[in-house]
Amino acid sequence: MQAYALTAFAADTFEQISLPVPVVGAGQVLVQNRTAGVNNIDLLIRRGVLSPAATPLPHVLGVEGAGVLEDVGPGVDNLNIGDRVIWLGSLGAGGYGPYTVIDAAHVAKIVDSVSFDVAAAAPVAYATARNNLFTYGTPDPGAWVLIHSAAGGVGTAALQVARNAGFKTIALTTSAKLDFVRAQGATVAIDRGASDVVEQVLRVTGDQGVALSLNSVGGSTIVQDLKVLGKFGQVISFGHLGGPPEGSARDLLMPPYFNKSIAIRVSDLYTLWEAKKGAFNAILRQIADDLSRKVISPQVHKVFACSEAIAAHRELESGRTTGKIVLRHDYLGS
Questions:
Q1: Is residue 132 domain-resident?
Q2: For the domain that residue 232 is a member of, what is the CATH number?
Q3: Torsion over CA of 46, 268, 121 and 321, rounded to 10 degrees?
Q4: For residue 109, which phi and psi values (nearest 5 degrees)?
C-alpha cells in the first residue's frame, strides 16, 4: 500500500512510501480507511516532542478513523467484512494510511446514514468527553460544568454530551467563537481572554461554583480553576495544550480550598483504552448509536486530502479551527 509517512521529525512534508498491507491476527480486524481525524497528538509526533522510541520512523500518523472492514480475524464474532466502522487506535495505528489493523474492542459499527467525514471526527473527541464526564464520578443532574477550549473537537463534543446528560455548561473560548459554542449547546459562553473570568463563572453559578472543570489547557489555568470549583468539585486535566500545569498542590491544603473537598485528576483516554477494553468499547458503541440517532453532531471544520496532510496540520496550528479537521483518502469519496 502507498501511505503518506513522516520520515523526519520537524519535517514540513510527508513522504509517500510503500508499505505492506497489515495482516489481521486473532481478535483483530482490518479496516480500509476512508477518512482519518487530525489531532494535536499528530502535531506533537511530527514535531518530535514524544520519545522517538514511541514513534519510530517512518511513521504513518493517525490514531482515529472511519472506513470499511476488509478482513476479520479469528475470535471476532460481532463484526463482519463490509461493515462500516469507526475506530480509535494507538500511536502506530496509521489512520493517514489506507489500511489499519486494530483490536475489535477498539472498533464500532456505524450506520450507512453517517458519512465517513463526520464519523472520523467522532472517536477521539467524544470518547474523551464521555470518559472525562462519566468515568471519574458523574456530577449531579443540573450541575454546572466548565469546559475549556470549548470550540475545539473535544470541547464541542463535551458541550453536546453534557447537554444531552442534563448538565449546564460554561464554555471558555475566544471572543470570535462565542456564537459557535452557544450553537453547540453551551448554556453560557465566556471570552477566555477576559480579565474577570473567575468572577463571571462564579456569578453565573450563583457563587456556588462548578461541579467539574474539563481542562485541556493546563498551565496556570489549573490553579485558576480551583477558585471556581464548588463543594466536592473536580478538575479533570488532560491534553495540556498550553503546557504542563503550573502551581503547587499545597494550594489544595489551605483555606478556602481545603474545606471544599475538591480534587484535581489527570486523565488519559489511553488508560481506559488499554486497561478496560470492555468499558472503552461500550463508549465507542454509544458514540456510534448517538451518531445514528443524531443526538450528537461532530463539527467538521475542514476536509483535506491525505496528500495535503501538512496543510491540515497548519490549519490546526493556526487556532482558527472550530471542531475537527478530517483527512480523506485520495482514492475515495466520503
A1: no
A2: 3.40.50.720
A3: -60
A4: -75, 145
**CA-to-CA distance for 84 and 17, rounded, in angstroms?**
27
109 within domain boundaries:
yes
pTM equals 0.95
Could you tell me whether strands 300-305 and 15-18 are parallel, antiparallel, or unpaired per DSSP bridges? unpaired
Is 313 inside a domain boundary? yes
Give the residue numbers spanning the domain of 112.
Answer: 2-124+270-328
Look at residue 131 and tell me if it is in a domain.
no
d(CA 307, CA 204): 46
* CA gap 57, 226 in Å, rounded: 41
Cα 282 from Cα 3, distance rounded (Å): 31
> What are the grid coordinates assigned to 308, written together?
495535503
Where a domain ends, among 237, 266, 295?
A: 266
What does the pLDDT look like over 204-242, one tens digit per residue?
Answer: 999 999 999 999 998 889 988 999 999 999 999 998 877
- Residues 149 and 215 reside in one and the same domain: yes
Q: How many Cβ atoms from other residues are within 10 Å of residue 330's Cβ?
A: 12
- Please count the structural domains in the chain: 2
Peptide bond into 56 cis (omega under 30): no
Span 312-322, mean pLDDT?
A: 95
